[in-house]
């Protein structure tokens, strides 16, 4: 069996760690393989280094090295380098890069500089984190450098800032007018991405941000068509519980694109390919697009066990839809 998932950072990574845990605990599914297509719109160049927050969050979470409290960055990291950069007056200081995490960015930047693609670099990093031993392949959505920028107006007329500046420095508190994915016009799907969707037995959309994570992956040429064309059921997990994001600023992102912060409205964004939609018990009355099967259960990922149960439920919904 092969499962393909489209994922952003923290929420998606926790869900997918739950999925691999569920698979390992379920004897008849234990040899299932998982391909993760990671969002690269969050990527940013800082201090001359290419940082890929969502790919790294997936690597660290699935590889057992993430800072559990933050959900991103490395566990037990130190900040000697950033402290020295601050002493040197080097900006920006609003984005925290730990010393161990910087090792990833130095290696990635060096390998990219030697001419390797982001896919090749990600595969090397995945080896470091033992992903293939867990049956996981991590693919960037594209090898073309892309960056999500956010058009805001903080009083001096509209201007665009990098997604990370809006998300981290401004805490998404300044309303976004729109999102622009710089570089997407020349992007192509990374090797293996479209095939992983077309050949999957089940496609999963973890509870990632529908606008700036899943929405960005859907903008990669060919991805949406592959989802519409795949024989596999496409099962999504709502990132909202009772009209609020479980974490992050999905509400601010949905507002920017004029979509209500409800599980029904998020399902509507996926209506052209979605076949199953998993929502929280509190959203059991969600209206779903025609042809979509709704299920509900508690959706809060409090720990590994609850994440495994949620991921298992999403997968079982996919398997049920496949048998029909
Ligand atoms: N999020 C923060 O809120 N503050 C930070 O300083 C920060 C640093 C950071 C460094 C590396 C990394 O991989 C992720 C980091 N994040 C930080 C998380 C990240 O900004 C976002 O949560 C994601 O890009 C959204 O998916």
Strand line-up of the largest beta sheet? 5-2-1-9-10-13-14
* Main beta sheet strand tally, sense and closure: 7 strands, parallel
Any idea of the CATH topology? Rossmann fold
Give the fraction of residues assigned to helices. 25-40%
Q: Which ranges are low-confidence, i.e. pLDDT below 50, for 5 or more consecutive residues?
A: none
CATH class: Alpha Beta
Oligomeric category: single chain
The beta-strand count equals 14
Gross morphology: globular
Distance between the termini: 17 Å
Radius of gyration: 19 Å
What is the count of distinct domains? 1
CATH architecture: 3-Layer(aba) Sandwich
Q: Beta-strand level of the residues, as a percent range?
A: 15-25%
Element order: H for helix, E for strand: EHEEEHHHHEEEHEHEHHEEEHHEEH
* Overall pLDDT confidence: 97
Tally of individual helices: 12
Bound molecules: ligand FO1
Derived from helix and strand composition plus strand pairing, the structural class reads alpha/beta
């Amino acid at each position: 069996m092969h499962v393909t998932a489209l994922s952003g950072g923290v929420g998606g990574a926790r869900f997918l760690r739950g999925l691999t845990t569920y698979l390992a605990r379920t004897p008849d599914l234990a040899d299932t393989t998982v391909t993760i297509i990671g969002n690269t719109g969050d990527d940013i160049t800082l201090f001359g280094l290419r940082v890929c927050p969502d790919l790294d969050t997936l690597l660290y979470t699935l590889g057992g090295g993430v800072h559990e409290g933050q959900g991103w960055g490395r566990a037990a990291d130190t900040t000697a380098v950033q402290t020295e950069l601050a002493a040197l007056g080097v900006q920006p200081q609003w984005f925290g890069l730990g010393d161990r995490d910087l090792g990833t960015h130095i290696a990635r930047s060096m390998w990219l500089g030697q001419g390797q693609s982001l896919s090749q670099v990600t595969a090397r990093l995945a080896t470091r984190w033992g992903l293939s031993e867990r049956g996981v392949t991590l693919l960037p959505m594209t090898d073309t450098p892309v960056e999500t920028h956010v058009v805001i107006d903080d009083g001096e007329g509209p201007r665009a800032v990098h997604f990370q500046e809006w998300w981290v420095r401004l805490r998404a508190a300044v309303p976004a007018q729109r999102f622009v994915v710089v570089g997407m016009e020349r992007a192509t799907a990374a090797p293996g991405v479209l095939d992983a969707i077309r050949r999957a037995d089940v496609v999963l959309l973890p509870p990632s941000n529908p606008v700036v994570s899943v929405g960005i992956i859907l903008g990669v040429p060919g991805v949406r068509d592959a989802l519409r064309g795949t024989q596999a059921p496409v099962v999504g997990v709502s990132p909202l519980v009772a009209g609020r994001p479980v974490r992050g600023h999905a509400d601010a992102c949905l507002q920017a694109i004029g979509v209500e912060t409800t599980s029904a409205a998020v399902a509507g964004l996926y209506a052209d390919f979605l076949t199953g939609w998993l929502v929280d018990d509190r959203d059991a009355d969600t209206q779903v697009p025609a042809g979509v099967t709704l299920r509900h259960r508690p959706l809060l990922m409090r720990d590994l066990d609850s994440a495994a149960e949620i991921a298992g439920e999403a997968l079982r919904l996919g398997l049920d839809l496949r048998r029909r």
